[in-house]
Amino acid sequence: MSGGGAESLLLTRILRQARARRNTSDIPGFTSMFGAGFARGITQGQTAQLAGVSRRWYNALESGRPANYSDAFLHRIRAVLALDDDEWVIVYRIARGRAPAATPGIPLNQLLPPALLALVEQSKTWGIYLSDQRWDVLACNEKIQEYFPWMGSGPNIVEWVLTWPEARAQLINWQTDWALPTIAALRVNAEQWPNDKRLQEVIETVRLDPTARKLWNSPDLPAVSHPASSSPRRLYLPQQEDKEFAIRIVSLTPMELPGCRLIAITPAELVSTG
After folding, report:
1. Which of 105, 142, 143, 200 has the CA that lies 20 to 30 A from 150?
2. Order of strands, edge to edge, in the sheet holding 233-235?
3. Could you give the angle at which helices 5-21 and 55-62 cross, rounded to 10 degrees?
4. Nearest CA to 152 among 110, 174, 121?
5. Given the DSSP bridges, would you call strands 233-235 and 261-271 parallel, antiparallel or unpaired?
6. Helix (H) or strand (E) holding 87
C-alpha cells in the first residue's frame, strides 16, 4: 500500500461509494447466493464472498491498511464493485504502489483479419466472442456483455470460469456443466501447445485455486472437450433476478486462425424458478 493517510482515505471513499451504488440485480446469481434484499448497495461481507476472500482481508483493503494485495484479488474487487477506469487506476495505484498493467486481449488484437473482427463486433443477434488457445479474449460484441458484463474488461475466460466466485454464482450446475468441460478443454490445449508460456500461466493460475485443483484430475472429465451445442447450459443473467436462462454454446474454429475459437451464445429456453 503506497501513499499516506490522504491516499488511504481516498481509496476507502472510492470503495465505499462503489459498494453503496452497486445494484444487486446487476450481479448474476446474487439472489441465489444471498437471498432477496435491497436493490442497491452490497455489504463488506457480500463483497468479500463474491471476491472469494475473507471479510477481514477485504476490510483491510477498504480501510486502507498496507498489505500484499495480489493482482488477482484486486481485479476481482474491480469486477464485483464495477469500478470504472478512473476508479480502478486510483485503487490499484494506492494498493500496489504503481499503475495497473494493460489487460491482455483488450484492446483488440490489431492482427485479427478485418473481416473476422467485423463479424464479431457487428453481430447484433447473438453474443459472440473470439478467444485464442489460451482463452484470452481477442474480440467480443456488445451482446455477449449482456450475458457476461466482465468480458469487455478482458479477464481470461477459463480463469474466470474456474477460479472466480462470481462465476460459481452465475453458472448453474457449475461443477458438472461448466467447470469439468472447461478443464477438459484446458488439458487438451496444454497437450497441443506444451511450450506456450502464456497458456502455462493460465494453467498455473487455475491450479492455484483449491477447488479447481481438486477437479484437475477428476475421473468425471468429459471425453469431448468442445462445448456441445446440443446440450443447453443454464445461468443467471444481470437484471433478471432469480430467473434461470438456458443457452446453447456454438463453437467454431476460423480456418485462418486454427488456434482460435469463435464462440456464439444462443438462447435456448427460459426456465422460471418461481
Report:
1. 200
2. 137-140, 127-131, 261-271, 244-252, 233-235
3. 120
4. 121
5. unpaired
6. helix 85-96
Q: Which tens digits make up the pLDDT trace of 68-104?
A: 998 888 988 988 998 988 899 899 999 988 888 755 4
| Set of cell numbers at residue 202 | 493460465
Secondary element (H or E) of residue 198: helix 197-208
Q: Global pTM?
A: 0.74
Grid cell in block for residue 157: 475466460
Phi-psi region of 89 (alpha: psi -120 to 50; beta: other; left: phi over 0): alpha
**C-alpha cell of residue 233:** 447450459
Task: Tell me the three state secondary structure of residue 135.
Answer: coil
Residues sharing a CB contact under 8 Å with residue 224, sequence separation 6 or more, in sequence order? 181, 184
Q: Are 233 and 177 in contact (CB under 8 A)?
A: yes
Strand partners, 249: 265
Residue type, 255: M
Residue 23: phi, psi to the nearest 5? Answer: -85, 120
Banded model confidence at residue 44, pLDDT cuts 50, 70, 90: very high
